[in-house]
Amino acid sequence: MDAYLFEWLSLLGRWVHVITGIAWIGASFYFVWLDNHLLKPADPADAAKGVGGELWSVHGGGFYHAQKYALAPAQMPGSLHWFYWEAYSTWLSGFFLLCVLYYRSPEVYMIDPSVAALAGWQAVAIGLGTLLAGWAVYDGLCRSPLGRNDKALGAVLALLLCAAAWGLCQVFSGRGAFLHFGAMMATIMAANVLMVIIPGQRKNVAAMARGEAPNPVYGERGKQRSVHNTYFTLPVLFTMISNHYAMTYGGPHNWLVLIGLCFAGAAIRAWFVARHKAHERGGKTSPLPVIVGVLAILVVLVALRPTPPATARDTADDSAGAEAVEVPDFERAQAIVIQRCAGCHAEHPTQPGFYSPPLGIELDTPETLLAHLEPVRQQVASRAMPIGNLTKMTDAERAQLIAWIDAGAPQP
To answer: Does the keyword Membrane apply (predicted)?
Structure first.
């Protein structure tokens, strides 16, 4: 019953997380687009009132006229809409999922004994510490003198993020490392809204209510954090979906994959942001950022390509030039799968914490095993499965199962 309840909590949590994430990212992307498309006001009277830019647009059969003040209007408007609950709700629902799935079962989703022999509480403590330390270091750098130089700050942040990616992959399973890297960045994004952007806006609104001029420094700080958030978005989205693709996190150099694909996401987003201002360059935008981003994806794609069956070797000790593994018979291959995989991948899983087979894949009968040979090979070869190696599949068993599949899965 507990597994069934937690599966529902996972489903509902993911649903809320996706909904609120769409709302947050959608609003964020729109305002970045809007800010970069603003033109000087056509009416001198608007400029005299402090309007710094305006934009006409059409959507859903209606015309819209957006104006942005260089600092603030002369008087407080009667109705002022704020944008922050989208960010808070996305983070809260994401943290809820982190607790329900990862922190509830760290041995399953976070710990890989071949990477680091952690106790469950240690893994959870490191995970939470990563979220807090990530924000503390980032915020400290932004508030330091370095924060006044956007390019230098960006370079330092990129190096620190690379170091974080490497470090997390040295203590967690690939799945846990990728997820926590994304959660760390998402925490920074939400904290930017909670701790910097919204407080600065509130201070300026309060100053206007007192009849005082708003302080432009709050707008400058908020703009800097907002720009960081937009570049973080695509890398965070990648890490959120990466757990469905073991080919990305299951290899020995998974930290390089994480860095490469996050870099690709940031580069592609940078191209979109630059494209928003094409009107300032005669309609032209350099394709270099998107080319670099796509090339980074292609490099990772080629690096992760599966080993051809004809040259498959023992994945446990390929550096020793081991002999090709003898192909086991069907009974032996099925016995390995039953012992090491079917605890989760069965119509009625026996592994604690699982109410239904992951991704609906069942492997407890000859027919279901033969129907899923390709995903079985990929997951076993990448060492992503069994998850956390809970069933202690040996390297020899991995090699035998791969050899059997590569030989065409011979049957009696």
So the answer is: yes
